[in-house]
Amino acid sequence: RDVAPSRGLGDVYKRQLKAHLLNHIFENNYFFINYFMKVLYLGCFCEPTTMPLINKRTKGRISVSATTFQRALLHGYDKLEYKPNYIVNVPDIGSFPMRCSSPFFPRSKFEFASMKGVNGAFFNFTYIKKYSIYRSIIKESTEWLDLHSKEKVTILVYSVIYPYLKAAIDLKYKYPNVEVCCIVLDLPEYFGDNTSWFCRILGKKITNQIYALVPEIDSFVLLTEHMKDKLNVGFRPWHLLEGVYNPIEVTSQKKRKKVILYTGKLDTRFGIRDLIAAFNEIDDKEFSLWICGFGLDQPFVEVAAKNDSRIIYWGLVEQNRVFEMQQQATLLVNPRKGDAEFTKYSFPSKTMEYMASGTPTVMYKLPGLPADYEEHLVLIPDNSRETFTAVLKEWGNKEQVELDEFGKHARQFILENKNSEIQAKRLMNFIMQH
Question: What is the mean pLDDT of residues 360-379?
Answer without folding.
Answer: 93
